[in-house]
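Lab manual, section 2.4: Encoding a predicted structure.

Procedure: take the sequence of the chain (61 residues), apply the prediction step described in section 2.3, and record the output as structure tokens. A sample record is shown.
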Amino acid sequence: MRDSLKDRVRQKLLRQLAEDGPDPEQDDARHISVADDLEALEMVPTDDPLVEELAQRYLVF
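Recorded output:
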């Protein structure tokens, strides 16, 4: 069974957060942006246009 686009986007965002890791010395704007996008993704249904927008933004195919 193939993962949905939403699942693939979620996996990509979680991977980016894990690889980047937060910098305790400063607020990392990129980390905050990815975390905000992940939160928004979780709040929408699978067929929401935001899923497609995030897929394009994070190059998820």
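Check your result against the sample. The radius of gyration is 12 Å.
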